[in-house]
C-alpha cells in the first residue's frame, strides 16, 4: 500500500474535503459528500523516452533545469490521441532538430518519483543538432563508453545497450 499524494485536498467536482481510504490495495483520496463519489486515482502520466543514435554514437542531452554534468535521454509527454512511437519521434525532432529514421520499442519502466510510466524507444536520427529551449547541451558517446543511471530512463538505456551486446555499468549517483 502506498500513501496518497496530498496535492488534492478538496474535491474538484463539489469542493468538499477529500479523505483517504484504501481502494484496490492503494490509499486513494475520495469525496464523502452525498451523491458525489469522486475518487482521485493518481494514475501515472505516460512519457516517451528516446535512446537517440546519431552519427553512429549515442546522443545524450542535458535539460536546462538540471545541474551541469547530468545528461540523459530525450523525453516528452505523450499527447492526447498520439501513438507512443510517433510521440518519441516528434520529441527528437522538437528538441534536437534531427530527422528520426524509425522508432523501435525497448520497454516500459516505472518512474515512481514523478509518477510516470516511461515508454522507451531506440530512435536512429540524422541531421544537424540544434537544441530547443528545453535543452542546455548535448554530448555524443561511443556505445561502449555509456553508463546507465539507476532510474527508469537509465534502465531503458541499459537494456538497449545490453541488446546491442554491450555490458554497461551503473554510474554512481552522489549522495545528497
CATH architecture of the largest domain: Alpha-Beta Complex
The percentage of residues in β strands lies in 35-45%
CATH domain topology of the largest domain: Nucleoside Triphosphate Pyrophosphohydrolase
Name the structural class: mainly beta
Largest sheet geometry: 7 strands, mixed
Strand-and-helix sequence, N→C?
EEEEEEHEEEEH
Q: Provide the number of structural domains.
A: 2
Oligomer: single chain
> What is the distance, rounded to the nearest whole angstrom, between the alpha carbons of the first and last residues?
27 Å
Helical stretch tally: 2
The CATH class assignment of the largest domain is Alpha Beta
Structural overview:
Belongs to the Nudix hydrolase family. NudC subfamily. The two termini are 27 Å apart. By secondary structure, this protein is mainly beta. Helices cover 14% and strands 36% of the residues. It has two domains: 1-42, no CATH class; 45-163, Alpha-Beta Complex (Nucleoside Triphosphate Pyrophosphohydrolase), CATH 3.90.79. It is built from two helices and ten strands; from the N terminus they run ββββββαββββα. Strands 4, 5, 6, 7, 8, 9 and 10 form a seven-stranded mixed beta sheet that branches.
Summarize the structure.
Pfam families: NUDIX. By secondary structure, the protein is mainly beta.
Write the layout of secondary structure elements.
Elements: E1 18-23, E2 26-31, E3 39-40, E4 45-54, E5 57-63, E6 74-77, H1 84-96, E7 99-100, E8 104-111, E9 116-126, E10 135-141, H2 152-163
Parallel strand pairs: 4-9
Antiparallel strand pairs: 1-2, 2-3, 4-5, 4-6, 5-10, 7-9, 8-9
Amino acid at each position: 500500500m502506498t500513501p496518497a499524494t496530498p496535492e488534492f485536498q478538496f474535491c474538484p467536482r463539489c469542493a468538499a474535503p477529500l479523505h483517504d481510504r484504501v481502494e484496490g490495495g492503494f490509499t486513494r483520496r475520495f469525496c464523502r459528500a452525498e451523491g458525489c463519489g469522486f475518487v482521485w486515482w493518481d494514475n501515472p502520466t505516460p512519457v516517451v523516452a528516446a535512446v537517440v543514435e546519431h552519427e553512429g554514437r549515442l546522443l545524450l542531452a542535458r535539460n536546462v533545469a538540471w545541474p551541469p554534468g547530468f545528461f540523459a535521454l530525450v523525453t516528452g509527454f505523450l499527447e492526447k490521441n498520439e501513438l507512443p512511437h510517433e510521440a518519441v519521434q516528434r520529441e527528437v525532432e522538437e528538441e534536437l532538430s534531427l530527422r528520426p529514421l524509425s522508432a523501435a520499442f525497448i520497454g516500459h519502466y516505472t518512474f515512481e518519483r514523478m509518477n510516470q510510466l516511461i515508454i522507451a524507444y531506440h530512435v536512429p536520427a540524422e541531421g544537424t543538432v540544434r537544441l530547443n529551449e528545453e535543452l542546455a547541451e548535448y554530448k555524443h558517446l561511443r556505445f561502449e563508453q555509456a553508463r546507465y543511471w539507476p532510474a527508469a530512463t537509465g534502465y531503458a538505456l541499459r537494456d538497449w545497450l545490453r541488446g546491442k551486446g554491450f555490458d554497461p555499468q551503473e554510474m554512481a549517483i552522489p549522495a545528497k
